[in-house]
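Hey,

The postdoc asked me to send both predictions to you directly instead of through the lab channel. I've kept everything plain text so nothing gets mangled by the mail client. Protein one:
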Amino acid sequence: MTEFATSADGTRIAYTTIGTGPALVLVDGAMCYREFGPCKSLAEHLSDRYTVTYYDRRGRGGSGNTLPYAPEREFEDLAAVIEAVGGDAFVLGFSSGGGLALRSAAHGVPMRKLASYEAPFVGQVHVKGKPVDSVAELTKRLDAGRPDQAIGFFMVDMVGGPWFMPIMMRLMGKVFTQLKAVAPTLPYDAELMTGFEVPVEEMARIGIPTLVMVGGKAKPNMVRAVQDVAAAVPGAAHRLLPGQTHMVKDEAIEPELVEFFR
């Protein structure tokens, strides 16, 4: 069932809650929302241990998209969801959702404990050896009415996928339609990630127990990024999940969460 939290600027944020136990809020990464991405599956997987809430970040699915955008609005969105489910919750963020959760904690959003999986503070994006402004490049393509090109830039130039990945996505008609619908939020994730460099001073303000995780099959820049976050957050725990990619399996991340949230 869809419920709504109201953010500080009046934006309605759609969320779903299932399960029983301590409250756990899941935060999605780029282009993901309740019906597309890892959170629905993990919520169902953990529902016998936790009361799990997963939500549509602004501009996605059933949530509103009040403009102008700023990362602070997403911190407020997460705070509104946590407040709506009782005000006392564990938080887990995936990819740029991990970056969002970390930055939210640094800005005082209340959480019991915080876990992040592969927040992509992986360094400035380069195209053909030259640094590029990801927000500007994504916005240019979207303003031209080409969400498909924005998706391609994200998948190949930003994420480092093979050149043929966008072509494969186009062949998956329903999936590509879903991706195009949320492509306008790609600049949000790029802006949120602070130039894809770890905001060390900001991370140092996090005062809650924090776990940062990385998959055993992660690229070297992602491994370094997670290590740098662990070093920047006071007292943070760091875990490597053997054999896992950026799309971590529910069964692989569950024991780490259960132990850390105990």
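Protein two:
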Amino acid sequence: MPALDVLALGEAMVEFNQARADAPDQYLRGFGGDTSNMAIAAARLLGSRGIAGYVSRVGDDAFGRMLRELWQRERVDASGVAVDPAAPTGVYFVTHGAAGHEFSYMRAGSAASRISPETLPHEQIRAARVLHVSGISQAISASACDAVLAAVAAAGASGTQVSYDPNFRAKLWPLARARAVIMATIAECDWFLPSYDEAKLLSGYADPTAIIDWCHALGAPVIALKRGGDGVVVSDGRTREEIPGHRVDCIDATGAGDCFDGAFAVRILAGDTPFAAARYANAAAALATTGFGAVAPLPRDAEVRKLLDSAPG
């Protein structure tokens, strides 16, 4: 089993994305799941320079086979993915309207929700350079939440850096429970990657400066506060920098934050400062909005470099 540069843990699903506003009954089949998106983004950006991997469970069904074929095509090491013959692979639908994209999930009792501390590939986690986890993985079941916390503990004990995106989804768990679990996990991460909207809900603050202060007070050493088209605010506890967004032809923002997470980890591993890593990740995330679905538009390194080189200033 190879040592991995980036290892993500969570739930992957098959995606059905509403293709066009003028054809609301037509859907494009794709793939999603925040941590799977992150692993694929990292794999594309690493290219031949490193290996990204994934830990999860899928059903012994057509959708599970599609996901395993996807990871093989994308050069994501799926040796940490187990096949569960007793549970299905999750699916979800994305619709688009005036208020943005809306998600509808069919994931209750999914194979991934049955992941537990006992089923984790602990050696693989301890050998990885970065472990990425998310609040969605903690929300889908009690055993999955326990698995995330066990993986984070194993990573911390072995010197593996921990990347954490809260990815709060109100449909999955109550805000009070989410806040308690996420706050406890923030203290164990090496970098924390919330979006502005979820950080506002979790912290109770609207001002980005107050949000970042709240994150640091909970123990996060590095924070990248993602603000969509407005860019990102990065802090390492000593310096803060506002990085503006990029002007692109935005079609679908599904997966953009996950792309940021993968790109940020890749550049930290390459030796970048958090600020340089965030500039690169900010450009990668912008490019991830220029196509439909969570996976198809994820960029490669040359595309990100081209956008960065063309940016003003």
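Summary for protein two, as requested: The chain has one domain: 6-12+34-89+109-307.

Thanks,
C.
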